[in-house]
Write a structure and sequence with these properties.
The protein is an alpha/beta fold and 382 residues long. It has helices at 12-26, 51-55, 68-75, 123-126, 133-148, 163-182, 206-218, 307-326, 363-378, and strands at residues 3-8, 34-40, 44-46, 65-67, 78-81, 84-88, 93-96, 101-103, 106-109, 114-115, 128-129, 154-159, 190-196, 222-225, 229-233, 236-239, 244-246, 249-252, 256-257, 275-277, 289-291, 296-298, 341-344, 350-354, 358-362. It is 31% helix and 26% strand.
């Protein structure tokens, strides 16, 4: 009987495991006595690097999604389309929302994060959360339709001052202005405020922050720093200091945590509910359980939640699963201490930087980012 390797979730790392599994077999080095299974509720998975470009209208929805069903067929992976609901570690089974229990010898979780709006009154029902991406995309059409419905002024409040929030502000501005032009309405009637509880882009270098501030100001996007949102209402938001920020829509790109069902595994978790792992990407207490992406945290090297880490973890995870099957020592994953950040402004330009000094901007930076993202997606779209 083959040993069962189960991937729960179709995240950025797991799609790379699927292609590595097929490439090893094609090269005459198949994983020892292994069958690979993907468990995911969705047949398509979004690539977060292309989300701002899609919001801005630079990519269509198909271009930013990987077809998991087709990828599974192409890589010899069994696909179980179901939501995972639990883990029976004693019986070595992944529980699903259907009647199927999927047995495993090794299991890996790459299930992303979910909104955590519990600290903002009214946000669950009145705000639009960016994560998970699928839910946000479903609401994007409604947001665009509402903004263009009567041609009147449109006020958006974006909550979150990290790269994701900044890119989203640029992208929404570009898309809503284009929508307004299409119906003959005034594009300048679209106004955006970007609110952050701390400094804007606090983890990035000074040159990159300066370029971003200049680009935001040039496009009329107002930045409010040191503002913590306490409540969301139908006509805007209220800060902890009691200030009212008027808005027709509030979009939140912060406040997320790992899915709640991970806490039931009896494994160590972090403050955000993520599974704590060793450098080998294995659970601290169960070597048969691996976890990567936003739903996991390397215990001795915690990093920000960013898609770049899941992408970098993919090859290490694939190698370690094969090594575990062969009884070989596993490789450590060492996260970059500085990484490339590329942010589209939604209008054919982008801002980029890395480490403590590199900061660039311009149309060529957008072409660079577009090339990187398309090259990544091309690996899974054949």
């Amino acid at each position: 009987m083959p040993r069962e390797v189960v991937l729960v979730g179709g995240g950025h790392a797991h799609v790379q495991v699927m292609t590595a599994f097929a490439e090893s077999r094609a090269a005459g080095r198949p994983w020892p006595d292994a069958r690979l299974t993907l468990v995911s509720p969705d047949a398509r998975t979004p690539y977060s690097g292309m989300l701002p470009g899609h919001v801005a209208g630079l990519y269509d929805r198909d271009e930013m999604h990987i077809d998991l069903d087709r990828l599974a067929a192409a890589t010899g992976t069994r696909f179980v389309q179901a939501a995972a609901t639990g883990l029976d570690r004693a019986g070595r089974q992944v529980r699903t929302a259907g009647s199927t229990a999927v047995p495993y010898d090794l299991v890996s979780f790459d299930v992303g994060i979910t909104p955590d709006l519990s600290g903002i009154a009214g946000a669950d029902s009145l705000a639009v959360a960016v994560k998970p991406i699928g839910g946000f995309l479903d609401k994007l059409s409604d947001l665009r339709s509402a903004a263009a419905r009567d041609g009147g002024p449109v006020r958006l409040l974006i909550v979150g001052g990290g790269p994701a929030g900044v890119e989203l502000a640029f992208a929404l501005r570009a898309r809503l202005r284009a929508d307004r032009v299409a119906i003959g309405a005034d594009p300048d009637a679209v106004s955006l405020v970007l609110a952050t509880s701390g400094p804007l882009l606090k983890s990035l270098n000074a040159g990159l922050r300066r370029r971003t501030r200049a680009a935001l100001a040039e496009r009329g996007i107002v930045v409010r720093e040191g503002v913590r949102i306490a409540a969301v209402s139908a006509d805007g938001a209220v800060t902890e200091a009691g200030e009212r920020l008027p808005a027709d829509r509030v979009v939140i790109s912060t406040k997320a945590r790992a899915p709640a069902f991970l806490a039931d595994f009896g494994l160590p978790t972090g403050p955000d509910g993520s599974l704590l792992t060793r450098f080998t990407l294995q659970s601290l207490t169960d070597p048969a359980v691996f976890a990567v992406g936003d739903c996991a945290t390397v215990a001795n090297n915690p990093n920000q939640k960013a898609g770049v880490f899941a992408v970098r973890q993919g090859p290490v995870l694939a190698d370690n699963l094969a090594r575990a099957l062969a009884g070989k020592p596993l490789r450590p994953f060492r996260a970059q201490t500085d990484w490339l950040v590329l942010m589209t402004t939604g209008d054919g330009n982008a801002i980029g930087g890395r480490g403590s000094r590199l900061a660039v901007s311009g149309r060529w930076v957008w072409r660079w980012k577009d090339h990187i993202d398309r090259a990544f997606m091309a690996r899974f779209m054949g």
